[in-house]
Design brief:
Layout: H1 11-20, E1 40-44, E2 54-59, E3 64-66, H2 69-74, E4 82-88, E5 91-96, E6 101-106, E7 112-116, E8 122-129, E9 132-137, E10 142-147, E11 152-158, E12 172-175, E13 178-183, E14 189-194, E15 199-205, E16 214-215, E17 220-225, E18 240-245, E19 250-256, E20 264-268, E21 274-279, E22 281-286, E23 305-310, E24 317-321, E25 328-334, E26 340-348, E27 350-355
Antiparallel strand pairs: 1-2, 1-27, 2-3, 4-5, 5-6, 6-7, 8-9, 9-10, 10-11, 12-13, 13-14, 14-15, 16-17, 17-18, 18-19, 20-21, 21-22, 23-24, 24-25, 25-26
Length: about 350
């Protein structure tokens, strides 16, 4: 499943890695880049504790991909498990989970401009302004508050009723002065944070383990729950897709999957009126629909769809194939009708995307 297949079996290894697994940033030869004005970054997770995460960049116009651009531009490895990437203030912020670091890079040259270190196990970063951002964590009951200008940790948001061992905060979206965040590992809730006080002021119970979170054009939050797993002490149930009104913070609609389904990766198109997700195949529906689709948008067999994004300008769909989590992954590019356009190889376990 998307949230790192190895996390269910490697909690003990993580705590050892947190104490002893700090990366040594050895510098070597570098290359000069000048990226096209628009393009797509792909974070390739690599393998847990192997330190083989990489960053790729794809130019849709030329159909050219550049792999391992962080290493090639900076002469050092990216680290252990590249989880996500965001762009803010003309910098790309790469969250490297098990190396406990977020790198900031120039989005044209790919050169490092700074880094935020000493994080627990960072997952996603959400920017509030030039001097304040939130960073969610795995195996921590705190969301870190950081200053992007000084690359420093400035405070914490403590999440109620969450232990350090089972704690997990994930993706964030903002509506007005409030940031909403899904709590995944052994959790079943969305939390609401007041950005003026940096306090959790409310929570909403959903199904077991909400895996992602987006906000559509009508100010509705969407999340998919994975339902846990067989033998989980927290329970195991059929997954669901939820539509939540951001204003009232109440569930408006629950769409149920079949028991045994593995939905993940909720995404929106550029106009935020069409929802996409992975459940073996790729599915989509209008955000106003009251029924789930009966036929997939893109069918694919004998593969492992692992990541998903939609080009915000033209509606093209990109799907990451992790294959066997050991070899280079493949990105498939489709037009808005689901017809194939291109495919290209990237790094090991491509998991997330970031549009420039």
């Amino acid at each position: 499943m998307k949230l790192h297949k190895y996390f269910f079996i490697s909690a003990v290894l993580f705590h050892a890695a947190f104490l002893t697994g700090c990366m040594e940033w050895d510098y070597g030869d570098t290359e000069d880049f000048n990226a096209p004005a628009t393009g797509l970054f792909i974070t390739n997770e690599g393998n847990f504790q192997y330190g083989n995460a990489t960053l790729s960049y794809y130019d849709p116009d030329s159909r050219q991909v550049q792999n391992e651009i962080f290493f090639r531009a900076n002469g050092m490895k990216l680290g252990d498990v590249a989880q996500s990437m965001s762009i803010y203030d003309d910098k790309g912020w790469i969250v490297v989970n098990n190396s406990h670091v977020i790198f900031a890079i120039d989005i044209n040259t790919f050169k490092e401009t700074g880094r935020i270190e000493n994080l627990t196990s960072p997952r996603y970063i959400h920017f509030l302004n030039d001097e304040k951002a939130y960073v969610t964590q795995l195996w921590d009951n705190r969301i870190f508050i950081v200053n992007p200008k000084t690359y420093s940790i400035t405070g914490y948001i403590h999440v109620p009723d969450m232990t350090m061992e089972s704690g997990s905060t994930e993706q964030m979206v903002q509506y007005g002065k409030y940031v909403y965040c899904n709590c995944w590992s052994y959790q079943n809730r969305i939390i609401k944070i007041d950005t003026e006080t940096d306090k959790v002021i409310d929570e909403l119970k959903v199904g077991i383990q909400p895996t992602s979170l987006v906000l559509d054009k009508y100010n509705k939050l969407w999340t998919i729950t994975d339902g846990g797993y067989e033998g989980s002490p927290y329970g195991h149930e059929a997954p669901s897709l939820y539509r939540i009104d951001a204003e009232s913070f109440r569930v408006e609609r629950q769409f149920k999957f079949r028991f045994g389904d593995c939905p993940s990766e909720v995404q929106l198109n550029g106009t935020r009126d069409t929802l996409y997700w992975i459940n073996n195949d790729i599915w989509n529906m209008d955000v106003t629909d009251e029924r789930m689709p009966i036929r997939p948008f893109i069918e694919y067999r004998d593969t492992k769809f692992y990541g998903l994004t939609v080009n915000p300008t033209n509606g093209e769909v990109y799907v990451a194939d992790a294959i066997d989590y050991q070899q280079q992954g493949i990105i498939y590019r489709f037009n808005p009708n689901g017809e194939p356009i291109d495919e290209f190889y990237v790094g090991i376990t491509p998991g997330s995307f970031c549009w420039k």
